[in-house]
Amino acid sequence: MARIGLVAHDEKKDDICAWALRHKAKLSQHELWGTGTTGGRVMAETGLSVTLLKSGPLGGDQQLGAMIAEGQLDMLIFFIDPLSAQPHDVDVKALTRLATLYDVPFANNKSTAEAVLAAI
Ligand SMILES: O=C(CO)COP(=O)(O)O
């Protein structure tokens, strides 16, 4: 069982919910962790169980980054919006940096998410 982090910026939340619904059977075999709003929407729209962290702008990205640094997250699915400024951009950068540093499989868009999930 893999520990998978789920995050999406506001403009991408519909996409991550649709992706999670499409892969519900497979995702249900894994342990899911999500930033507050993303995780809440995935739970509501798919029925999957997601452990909720704080909302991203309130520290949720940092919590996922800490999990990566502690070796507690096996995969990060982060649907990033490249067209909107984020007030917590430094936190987003820290999370993506740690995922890179610790060589965690990390999808930042829909097609990569398909590929990464297919690999487990
Ligand atoms: O802001 C986020 C990622 O940077 C996501 O946080 P929410 O899921 O709480 O909206």
TrEMBL record:
Keywords annotated in UniProt: Lyase
GO molecular function, one term: methylglyoxal synthase activity
Binding site for substrate: H9, K13, T35, G36, T37, T38, S55, G56, H88
GO cellular component: cytosol
CDD domains assigned: MGS (cd01422)
Gene3D superfamilies: Methylglyoxal synthase-like domain (3.40.50.1380)
Active site: D61
Ranges for domain MGS-like: 1-120
Catalysed reactions, semicolon-separated: dihydroxyacetone phosphate = methylglyoxal + phosphate
GO terms for biological process, alphabetical: methylglyoxal biosynthetic process
Summary of the function given for this chain in its UniProt record: Catalyzes the formation of methylglyoxal from dihydroxyacetone phosphate.
Family membership: Belongs to the methylglyoxal synthase family.
NCBIfam families for this protein: MGSA, PRK05234.1
Name the record gives this protein: Methylglyoxal synthase
Lineage of source species: Bacteria, Pseudomonadati, Pseudomonadota, Alphaproteobacteria, Hyphomicrobiales
